[in-house]
Design goal:
heterodimer; A: alpha+beta; Sufe protein. Chain: A; B: alpha/beta; Aspartate Aminotransferase, domain 1; 2 domains; seven-stranded mixed β-sheet; 13 helices; 17 strands
Chain lengths: 154, 409
């Protein structure tokens, strides 16, 4: 029985890579910013995942980013990895990273593996289509938060 | 064993399939049940031998289809002990049945300042139609609280209803907690106070002997697909006096008596509420599902589920870090076991279980406010039916342990 379980687990390892579990257990940038310029709440109504992203945009860059939320390991570790990958980057770099990541999730060939770095670990999610929305939730939420930050009056 | 489960399993072709190289262990019955070959055969038999539209054809196929459709209605009537088939309306599902009541009865009988009484354990399908009705009419919605053990906090029935309470709608059995609510007691008090009662029977009719007259409900709604029948068929039982005074929900063919360019008069019950060509094939196959359940005996179905649920509570309850929801006593609950593990999200549990061929549901189970009330976003849920075995509960427990071990790294 134990051997059988080990075999099953090797299929799961594609989804739950060590780095994903690490971000789930030890989230980065989780919490609130002192003075965010915008924030956005993202919900995945199918499974109840919640991620709120706060951003501090300054001089054309994402000076600071943080998230709060609850949900499965994929949604929460994706949020943590995203904040690590985007904090301090210029807005145009962040935008292209968002595009790169969502392209990776769509299974597109047109991705830049160098730009993705650690985020490539999320590629295993593609084999589990139901979970793709979990992985992209934080990224769509960041995108919305940045739109809010750049719109006039904010 | 109160049921011959191995004989039952032989009737369900899908139970032979493998998932990720493992025998399927299907424990998502509260979402939808599997179908026996008798039901599948009723579908193909209709399409291969007497497919025709019903009620107005003079040809043989039309007569046969009409007879089979109306025969299914009679089977449903007997199954829930409704006084007559006039009280048995076919809809698409439980949701549509509840919407029918909220629109046709609710729009005529709920006024500004009136109160709609629900519970904190409503499925969204018995929540949204009433919230919308209240919003439209300026009525209020009040919720009977759910206690930590998953039962309703009734605190003495006499104070349950406000002078403005017009309708009470609640689930017979909670799809998330498994709680069997005291619907007879509640309906009888409601009747005394002149409050109309709708029971969401989506998890009741498939699992318990149901006698709508003994319950005393004004309306009782349920779905075919959760009780061995096809998708796309629901039932609204309504007290005849109420259905008669209600306006139609949808207009079109079938539901009319006389139509002129100036207007129309309505058909008799129950056809007044069945506009357009109904889901003939699935209604007929639903009749086959009712035959199957009647053959097993609903009391036996219930006893089997109590046995499996007790065993599941015992097996899972011993696992470290588990939180289980709902009444601890299996006699007070249906075959639903909802649980969470510390530090492990229901979706991650469900994902690992799938690798072992075990199908459970994870998430909010369409009761988001209830889980917020419990301070979590949802749960993992195993739900049982006539074909489930103790051995499958063992597979579930072993796979859960594997999931816990897997994430322990």
């Amino acid at each position: 029985m134990q051997d059988e379980y080990r075999r099953q687990e090797s299929e799961l390892d594609d989804l739950y890579r060590d780095i994903i579990i690490d971000h789930y257990r030890n989230p980065r940038h989780k919490g609130h910013l002192d003075a965010p310029t915008a924030s956005h709440e993202g919900l995945n109504p199918l499974c109840g995942d919640e991620v709120t992203v706060e951003v501090l945009v300054k001089d054309g860059a994402l000076a600071e980013v943080a998230y709060t939320g609850s949900g499965c390991s994929i949604s929460q570790s994706s949020a943590s990895m995203m904040t690590e990958a985007t904090a301090g980057k210029t807005l145009s770099d962040v935008k292209s990273l968002i595009e790169n990541f969502t392209a990776l999730m769509r299974g597109s060939e047109e991705i830049d593996p160098d730009a993705l770095g650690d985020l490539e670990a999320m590629s295993g999610v593609r084999k589990f289509p139901v979970r793709i929305k979990c992985a992209t939730l934080a990224w769509h939420t960041l995108d919305e938060a940045l739109k809010g930050a750049s719109s006039p009056g904010k | 064993m109160t049921l011959d489960v191995s004989a039952i399993r032989a009737d369900f072709p899908i139970l032979n399939r493998q998932v990720h190289g493992k025998p399927l262990v299907y424990l998502d019955n509260a979402a939808t049940s599997q179908k026996p070959r008798q039901v599948i055969k009723a579908l193909t038999d209709y399409y291969e031998n007497y497919n025709a539209n019903i009620h107005r054809a003079v040809h043989t196929l039309g007569e046969e289809a009409t007879a089979a459709y109306e025969e299914a209605r009679e089977k449903v009537r007997a199954f829930i002990n409704a006084p007559s088939t006039e009280s048995v309306v076919f809809t698409r599902n439980t949701t549509e049945a509840i919407n029918l009541v909220a629109y046709s009865w609710g729009r005529a009988n709920i006024h500004e300042g009136d109160e709609i009484l629900l519970t904190q354990m409503e499925h969204h399908s018995n929540l949204i139609p009433w919230q919308e009705l209240a919003r439209e009419k300026g009525a209020t919605v009040r919720y009977i609280p759910v206690a930590a053990d998953g039962t309703l906090e009734l605190n003495g029935l006499e104070n349950l209803f406000d002078v403005r309470t017009r309708v009470m709608a609640l689930p017979h059995v909670s799809n998330s907690l498994g709680t069997i609510n005291p619907v007879e007691k509640l309906a009888s008090e409601a009747r005394r106070q002149g409050v109309t009662v709708l029971i969401d029977g989506a998890q009741g009719a498939p699992h318990l002997p149901v006698d709508v007259q003994a319950i005393g409900a004004d309306f009782y709604a349920f779905s075919s697909h959760k009780m061995l029948g096809p998708t796309g068929v629901g039932v609204l039982y309504g007290r005849k006096e109420l259905l008669e005074e209600m306006d139609p929900f949808l207009g079109g063919g079938e539901m009319i008596r006389k139509v002129t360019y100036e207007g129309a008069t309505w058909n008799d019950l129950p056809w007044k509420f069945e506009a357009g060509t109904p889901n003939i094939a699935d209604v007929i196959a639903f009749g086959a599902a009712i035959d199957y359940l009647t053959g097993l005996g609903m009391q036996n179905v219930r006893e089997h589920e109590v046995e499996i649920t007790s065993y599941a509570i015992e097996r899972l309850g011993g696992m470290g870090g588990i939180t289980m929801y709902g009444p601890p006593n299996p006699d007070e609950r249906g075959g639903v076991v909802s649980f969470n593990f510390d530090d492990l999200h229901p979706h991650d549990i469900g994902q690992v279980l799938d690798q072992y061929g075990v199908a459970i549901r994870s998430g909010h189970h369409c009761t988001q406010p209830l889980w917020r009330h419990y301070g979590v976003s949802g749960s993992a849920r195993a739900s049982f039916y006539v074909y489930n075995t103790r051995e499958e509960v063992d597979v579930l427990a072993d796979a859960l342990q594997a999931a816990l071990d897997y994430f322990k790294r």
